[in-house]
Amino acid sequence: MQQPSQSRPRDLLVWQHAAAHMRAGRPVTLLCVLSSHGSSPGRQGFKMSVAADDSAGSIGGGIMEHKFVDLARARRREANPALVLRPQIHRREAPTDRSGMICSGEQVVLLFPLQPTDQPAVEACVRALEQLSAAYFTLSAAGLRVQPAPANLPSFAYHAGTDWHYAERLGFRDQVTIVGGGHVALALSRVLATLDFELTVLDDRPGLNTLALNSYAHHKRTVPYETLAREIPEGPHQFIVIMTFGYRPDEVALRQLLAHRVKYLGLMGSKAKIAELLGSLRASGCTAEDLARVHAPIGVPIQSRTPEEIAISVAAELIRVRNAQ
């Protein structure tokens, strides 16, 4: 049976849908959540492409999304090109801007009828997402723009007011590097492919069959573990999972990456192996502060045994770290 291909950024289908309708000369409207607070069903960056008879994406679902889709289609039937910028308050007692939902949060939703002049920018969004290239788009009263993304650009930025504007980095916000390409790494890659992570798998064994079979990773490389520090970037959206085939390569990998400033650094292994390895690092001069940053053993405690169960356990821990306030 053929394996599914690697995951693509969540918003690719939205931009592809918009581009296809624009190429065919059919009206299409972009809906986008510009900001969100509290228990809001649509988080910042959620978006939809809405045409007369179909749509792609979501701004959170429920009655609120239904109302905005209906509004987008009604305004298109009226040939009304004006955008709509509307707060949505998810509380029954709110005096204005009630969304019809009662989950207590708030969000700002933009209804943006795409114009023929926006098509080059829409196509640029599609290309950037398909090629995993660094780019970002901006939305404002002046229209839709796409530009190369500087390295330090935040994932989202919204400035409210009369001169409102919104910016978003295209593509995956978070990157996971798995060090070790064995059976657990293959199972973990399969799970992470559904969770909007850009995925890299590294191993030092040429011709490793489980690495060759891994169609879920966006990037796969065979590298010496002694070079990991320069192979893996640092940053607040970088997650590293070490799961090599043994104690010695685990130690080499961890020594390389212990000083890396990343969002998450985890090591798979039994409690006994972890205790011995960390003890060895401590004896060789590694600081308590650096060792405290290591998640080990990795994964939420669900008594996982099989590669697939371990993968779910590790993925759950990555979600917990990513979503922590």
TrEMBL record:
InterPro entries: MoCofactor_Util/Proc (IPR052698), XdhC_CoxI (IPR003777), XdhC_Rossmann_dom (IPR027051). Residues 23-83 form the XdhC- CoxI domain. Pfam families: XdhC_C, XdhC_CoxI. Residues 177-318 form the XdhC Rossmann domain. Coiled coil: none annotated. Gene3D superfamilies: NAD(P)-binding Rossmann-like Domain. PANTHER family: ALDEHYDE OXIDOREDUCTASE MOLYBDENUM COFACTOR ASSEMBLY PROTEIN, XANTHINE DEHYDROGENASE SUBUNIT A-RELATED. This is XdhC/CoxI family protein. The lineage of its organism: Bacteria, Pseudomonadati, Bacteroidota, Cytophagia, Cytophagales.
